Amino acid sequence: MQGIIDALLTFSDWLWGIPMLVILVGGSLFLTIRLGFVQFRHFGFAMKETFGKIFHKQEGEGTVSPFQAATAALASTIGASNIVGVPVAIAFGGPGAVFWMWVVALIGCAAKISEIVLGIRYRSLNEAGEYVGGPMYYLRGIKGGLGKALSIIFAFFLMIELIPSIAAQSLSAVQTASTLNIPPIVIAVLLVLPVALFVFGGIKTLGSFTEKLVPFMALTYLVGGIAVIISNIGNLPGAVADIFRYAFTPAAAVGGFGGAAVAQAIRWGTARGVYSNEAGMGTAPIAHSGAITDHPMRQAMWGVFEIVVDTLIVCTVTALVVLTSGLYQVLPSSEAASIPARAFQALLGDGVGGVIVTASIFLFVLSTITVIAWYGKTQAEFLFGRTFGNIMVVVYIGAIVAGAYIELGVIYRFLDLLLATIIIPNMIGLVLLSGEVKTLKDEFFGNPDYFKKG
């Protein structure tokens, strides 16, 4: 048995090297070219349609507002990894990893745009009268038996993958709270109650919850992060220069930092860019499929909004906190995840700084678990019906409690392997259905009734 486990873990490590980067980054680059670099050519329009119209009422069919759909998707992508994942990427890839994180995020916009367009295009009404959609629906748009097979594979493995994923999220909140001597059961209860309330409440309740929580938690963390950066403002020009310099030249070893070659900067920055915004993973369109909109491409602009907020803003603030503090050059890579907390504590003191980071991670974890539990519920409903969807919510709640007490160990490393079983069928679908996305893109931007509207 141990031999089988070791073989699977070895395969997972290999798969999440070059193969998955080729699938995700290569697929996103293909979509970028196929769609005529839409995320760059129409970036200004995307910002006008999102930041410029956050509280505008949209016309068309749907269940929740465009902003509620976007914040539901953001609740999944903005998580604890935005705080602890970025410093790890810098510790192993050097400051240049941040540059490649930005590049991959911008390229990944094409995948996220494609997902959302197809999510709206193939969505349907469920038994509760709510619009639902996602890869499990649009993959069936591929002709022949391949589409149906990919649809079932995606839905089944996403439903299963979320069990250990939720447990891992719960564990991260518990471990962070332990620094303030908060018992695990307290964290578990604080997570379970709102998750049960909002997931059972459906997409309308979830949308109302995330549209309030996501802006609050993001702004709370950003204010603290910007304060740390300002306190080290003298180091900011050098930090920004290092990001661009070490994206193309090796970073030398300094103190606890072991140095990094350009290949390491690309590898870690690419992985961070892919993980931070979930472009290509197929989860975002599940939330966006419920949005009220008059055209799929209009809602897809909120996908660009998500990547800007998640990667270009939140992850960048974390990166600058790490770089301006200089702690990545002092602490060993094994302690890189603690850098943001230490930087906050250096400015605000152990008590206040620790509380801000702990509260931020708790809120990030809460929002992530709430949304991904709902994602799992929709997969279960798609495969086995509404009753089974409710049963899976109970299973996910159990995973929250279990995660507060158990050491995930090897299971945590299996998450990457399970995640690949979701990404691969989705990326295949995005490439094969890219012609439909292009047609809808051309229809939208070529028709003044849509493009110039509002």
What's the gist of this structure?
Helix content is 75%, strand content 1%.
How is this structure best described in words?
- Strand 1 and strand 2 (131-132) form a beta hairpin.
- Helix 7 crosses helix 12 (236-245).
- This protein has a two-stranded antiparallel ribbon with strand order 1-2.
- With 454 residues, the chain is mainly alpha-helical.
- The mean pLDDT is 81.
- It has one domain: Up-down Bundle (Amino acid/polyamine transporter I), CATH 1.20.1740.
- The N and C termini lie far apart (61 Å).
- It is built from 20 helices and two strands.
Main attributes of the structure:
single chain, about 450 residues, mainly alpha, Amino acid/polyamine transporter I, two-stranded antiparallel ribbon, globular
Q: Outline, from the CA principal axes?
A: globular
- What is the CATH topology classification name? Amino acid/polyamine transporter I
What's the CATH C level? Mainly Alpha
How confident is the prediction overall: mean pLDDT? 81
Please render the helix and strand layout as text.
Blueprint: H1 2-15, H2 18-34, H3 38-41, H4 43-50, H5 66-77, H6 81-93, H7 96-121, E1 124-125, E2 131-132, H8 135-138, H9 145-177, H10 184-200, H11 202-231, H12 236-245, H13 262-277, H14 284-288, H15 296-325, H16 339-384, H17 386-403, H18 410-432, H19 434-445, H20 448-451
Antiparallel strand pairs: 1-2
